[in-house]
Amino acid sequence: MPFEMEKVLEISHIVKQFLVPDGRSLTACDDVSLTLYKGETLGIVGESGCGKSTLVKTVMQLYAPTAGAIYHRGVDITKLKGEAARQNRQHIQMVFQDPMQAFNPKMKIQDIICEPLRNFAIIKRNQVEEKAKELLRIVELSEEFAERYPGNMSGGQRQRIAIARALALEPEILVCDEATSALDVSVQERVVKLLVKIQKEKQLSIIFICHDLALVSKLCHRVAVMYLGNIVEILSGDAILEAKHPYTKALLRSVFSLKCKEEIQLLDGEVPSPLDLPQGCPFQDRCVECRGICRQEKPVLKLNSDGHSIACHLISA
Ligand code: SF4
Question: How far is CA 163 from CA 95, 160, 179, in A?
Answer without folding.
Answer: 6, 5, 9
